[in-house]
Amino acid sequence: MIGRREFLGATAAAVAVVGFDPLGRGWVTEAQAAERPSSATPFAGAPALDGELVLDAPSREAVATDLGNITFHTPGAVLRPGSARDISRMIRFCRRHGIPVSPRGQAHTTYGQGLSDGLVIENRYLKRIHSLGPTTAEVDAGIHWMELAKAAYAHTPRLTPPVLTGYTGLTVGGTLSVGGVGGLVGGLHTGLQVDHVRELEVVTGTGDIERCSRDRKPDLFESVLGGLGQIGVITKAVIDLVPAKQRARSYVLGYDDTAAFARDLRLLIERPVVDHVYAEFVAPGTSPTYKIHATVFHEPDQPPHDRTVIGGVSGVPEIRNTSYLEHVFTIDTLIDSLRQTADWDRLVKPWFDVWVPGTRIESYLAELMTTLTPRDIGPLGAGLIYPQRRARVHNPYPRLPRPDGSDWAFIVDVNTVSATTRPEPGFVDEMLARNKRLYARTRDHHKGTLYPIGSVPLTEEDWRGHFGDKWPAFRAAKRRYDPDQLLARGQNIFRDGR
Question: Does the domain at residues 4-124 carry the CATH identifier 3.30.43.10?
Fold first, then answer.
């Protein structure tokens, strides 16, 4: 592995790299190569690139952590690719020298999952929309969902991805690597984002550029979608598009009682007229403890009948009317405000994210609430619940809980955020221990599974249990497409080589 000390001599500006010195275990700049005799330059002849490879300290430090600000690894070099060929060339180069490689989108994981001491690939530099409409879009992996949503909505007729995460400032390749939950669009009548991909372009751990789909190299296609970057680097995706409505009407209902909340939640997710539902929760003691957000998308001249949407619920609704895109970008607007007022990107975020079986959500929440204090979420954090209809999920990854007789599974997030950029000593250790304890209880008692963007320390044995009966197929794909275990080592899934 390439550590920080080996690169302290880098200049403060972006530096062109010509090769890797296998003897000195360091990347070599043009200036350094010129100072050495040709007979002593086994590093010369690094691949020509359409983009650039940089090793200056600011560039490397900028990708040394993720959203969590818990784990830090400064890479030896950063690839800003200009094409899939760049990624292919550099993976082949790194494979020859045993250098680990991690792709990076917006790094919205919180426990160092995409960090590396070797080479980090900043996929956000691949950011073209290649084609759009009327039923699909072909985009680079570095395109943000916000950019795709705006472009699709501007199309005639108006279009939208069928599933959008709550925060849309994430890259397409990044969310497809973990699953992509419908935070503000999708979930009730759709699957996850990975269920709406027609085709991928992928660079494997051997450096091969492959096109894959459900009919072409299906083992690669299925294992890359939700595969946590283990099998290959997504460089392009062909994604479904569907017609978009112009308006959104949301009904926000508050509850202090878990049973009443869960009853109305189940009522609303089964109503065909309701297009999207998510819920918030806070630690007991703050009223309301729960909020349900139920949304109907509609045309301006065809507003929903409120009684049809919320008739029979016990909560008293607050009704909000917005444009479709205003609704889609609700969380982005909030996060942009927190960036300006609270130094959001530097706050510590030891998040906890799991799937809970549909039959267990009431008992799970009732138990979880007895353990939570205001400190567990923080003044800027959030507890979130996202329902997902099982019948709409077709890809084997991410790993939902085993079927339990319910049509539903629920994502439950405890998105802890520190009050300051320098929380008190022991805060991180305390929250990591909490996450480990909550995960063990979720897995062993409630039969839940991990949604692996949070801060939960896992062993190799934990990962094998997480993948369950899909472990042999996932391991076989790893051995076939990344035989040297070059990719995404920050997950620690294949650390022991089994």
Answer: yes
> pLDDT at position 9, please?
36
pTM metric for this prediction: 0.92
Q: Are 104 and 122 in contact (CB under 8 A)?
A: yes
Average pLDDT over residues 204-223: 98
CA atoms within 13 A on the CB side of 42: 8
Q: Per residue in 378-433, pLDDT tens? A: 999 999 999 999 999 999 999 999 999 999 999 999 999 999 999 999 999 999 99
User: What are the residue ranges spanned by the domains of the chain?
Assistant: 4-124, 126-243, 247-450
Find the largest Cα–Cα distance for the chain: 82
Question: Beta-carbon neighbour count of residue 437 at 10 Å?
Answer: 12
Residue range 126-243 in CATH 3.30.465.10: yes
**Class of CATH domain 247-450:** alpha beta
pLDDT tens-digit map of 113-122: 999 999 999 9
Using alpha carbons, select from 61, 357, 452 the residue that is nearest to residue 365: 357
**Pseudo-torsion of CA 353, 355, 358, 364, nearest 10°?**
-50
